[in-house]
């Protein structure tokens, strides 16, 4: 047996969703929305399936989807990318896996920015790489050159930057992104830019892609699930500089080979209709305001949330010394609400006492979550 897998914990998202189901708790843990998808996309996907879009797509993705992805990013982010450099994957997590498996050789190091999405470190190790961590600190979560430099060694080949950042909800500003680019250029690193939350920016500042700032070295990962609020569709992609694109496509062909053609075709049509995304953003903002107001009313201290579906809460504001894991266990069992503790997102010294709540939920769900959080304190 492979010890990497034997020692791997069950993902905190899966654990909390299972615990929510077991205890009948409101699930504000795993990040999936109750609303926000364009209805025409569902009709389109269903119709395409009935009409016979049911056999293997080309491994790299339907040409129409790869073209639509390039058109979408040209219009919204000013990117000059070509369909030939896009690999469509079964969700962004598979894209991240394909990138890490193809970009890292045994012994290469990759830097992640903690609190880091939980897939990066295990996938770096599966690729034979070693994990180095730069740790952001609450409540500002600011990224800077010194912290990235300190995490580097001569064996570092790749830097993973997730922006907007999950689980903190930060949108890094141009100074922080420039710091990442400067470090990557100085040390000739590949940047894996996990930008799946690019369309869930709720602070009014513009989103800037690392692929625009450093196109020569950035592999951009995107997600139709996040763009269209359809997380179960599991359609993602990786867009790479020409020298890396073919290798990523080959890693992908022996992970999943291809993704459902009807969903790919529907996503292609959706990407041509960015106006469909406006309503969802307004609804997410309303939902965030509702959850934040309720939590503050219940006495919780909140951290800033600029993007993503997530609001972080500082438990130390309650005046009780409670570890985030212990709080999450208690909240789901006794108070009836599932939240995500932040400490599992660190390899090294973790921030304790912070939990993440998903606000992309119907009003009734948010209200039930607020009531349960009031019980939990
Ligand atoms: N991205 C989701 C979140 O942050 C989780 C995805 C998953 O469970 N694989 O909640």
UniProtKB/TrEMBL annotation:
<dbReference type="Pfam" id="PF00155">
    <property type="entry name" value="Aminotran_1_2"/>
</dbReference>
<dbReference type="InterPro" id="IPR051326">
    <property type="entry name" value="Kynurenine-oxoglutarate_AT"/>
</dbReference>
<keyword id="KW-0663">Pyridoxal phosphate</keyword>
<dbReference type="GO" id="GO:0008483">
    <property type="term" value="F:transaminase activity"/>
</dbReference>
<protein>
    <submittedName>
        <fullName>Aminotransferase</fullName>
    </submittedName>
</protein>
<feature type="domain" description="Aminotransferase class I/classII large">
    <location>
        <begin position="26"/>
        <end position="368"/>
    </location>
</feature>
<dbReference type="InterPro" id="IPR015421">
    <property type="entry name" value="PyrdxlP-dep_Trfase_major"/>
</dbReference>
<dbReference type="InterPro" id="IPR015422">
    <property type="entry name" value="PyrdxlP-dep_Trfase_small"/>
</dbReference>
<dbReference type="InterPro" id="IPR004839">
    <property type="entry name" value="Aminotransferase_I/II_large"/>
</dbReference>
<dbReference type="InterPro" id="IPR015424">
    <property type="entry name" value="PyrdxlP-dep_Trfase"/>
</dbReference>
<keyword id="KW-0032">Aminotransferase</keyword>
<keyword id="KW-0808">Transferase</keyword>
